[in-house]
Amino acid sequence: MRDSFGVGGVSVFDRIAYDPTLMNGHPIIRGMRFPVKTVVRMVAGGMTVEDIQQERASVLGP
User: Fold this and answer.
1) Helix (H, G, I), strand (E, B), or coil: what is residue 25?
2) Cα–Cα distance between 51 and 54 in angstroms, integer?
3) Alpha-carbon span 42 to 46, nearest angstrom
4) Residue 7 and residue 17: Cα distance in Å, rounded?
5) Cα–Cα distance between 4 and 61 in angstroms, integer?
6) Across residues 7-31, what is the average pLDDT?
């Protein structure tokens, strides 16, 4: 297991899921059906964690 940890000491890899039957097999944020590539693009575009949380809530609901 890698030692890459995110917020609160939770492994980043524990938050990413892959299932070929969901989202055409693209990696997603576990339990959300929110593509990892979308989050990466948001961060690359300068969005903060708070911005992403607000955007996710407006698209996916609370």
Assistant:
1) helix
2) 5
3) 7
4) 17
5) 29
6) 79
Sheet holding 28-29, edge to edge: 16-17, 28-29, 34-35
Q: What are the residue ranges spanned by the domains of the chain? A: 7-52
- pLDDT, one tens digit per residue, over 21-61 is 988 989 998 888 889 999 999 999 999 988 988 887 766 55
Return the H-helix or E-strand segment holding 7: none
Nearest to 10 by CA among 1, 19, 18: 1
How far is CA 43 from its chain centroid? 11
Q: 27 and 36 in contact (C-beta within 8 Å)?
A: yes
The pLDDT value recorded for residue 8 is 54
Distance, CA of 42 to CA of 27 (rounded, Å): 15
In this structure, are residues 38 and 55 in contact, taking their beta carbons and an 8 Å threshold? no
